[in-house]
Recover the amino acids of this structure.
């Protein structure tokens, strides 16, 4: 069982930056692939970024490449999403998620159904 708690959301002007954090409970954090997803009002949840257990592999939604960076600190049981050059279309509730399936993560990291545990979300609002 893993509990995930996101933080770091808020209101920022376009062009600004935020860093989201996701703290995980438990001593097996390093065994999970981790992902960030977001959901804007009236829209479906979408994949944003993912990172492998070791942090050696990262994956991004095309529209955030070059602006967002996912990272993790396994000693602190935390995954981060650094968001730069924010745009109004980045406005959404951001969720982190943990995936225990080692064999499938590298293939299905963008699928919400791949993940076993989810946080409660943190709101990011980008004003124009």
């Amino acid at each position: 069982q893993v509990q995930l708690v996101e933080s770091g959301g808020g209101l920022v002007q376009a062009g600004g930056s935020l860093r989201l954090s996701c703290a995980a409970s438990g001593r097996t954090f390093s065994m999970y692939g981790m992902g960030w997803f977001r959901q804007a009002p009236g829209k479906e949840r979408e994949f944003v970024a993912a990172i492998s257990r070791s942090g050696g592999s990262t994956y991004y939604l095309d529209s955030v490449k070059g602006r967002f960076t996912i990272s993790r600190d396994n000693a602190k049981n935390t995954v981060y999403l650094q968001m730069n050059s924010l745009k109004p279309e980045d406005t959404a509730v951001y969720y982190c998620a943990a995936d225990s399936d080692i064999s499938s993560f590298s293939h299905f990291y963008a699928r919400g159904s791949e993940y076993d545990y989810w946080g409660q979300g943190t709101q990011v609002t980008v004003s124009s």
The chain has one helix and eleven strands. Residues 105-108 form the longest helix (4 residues).
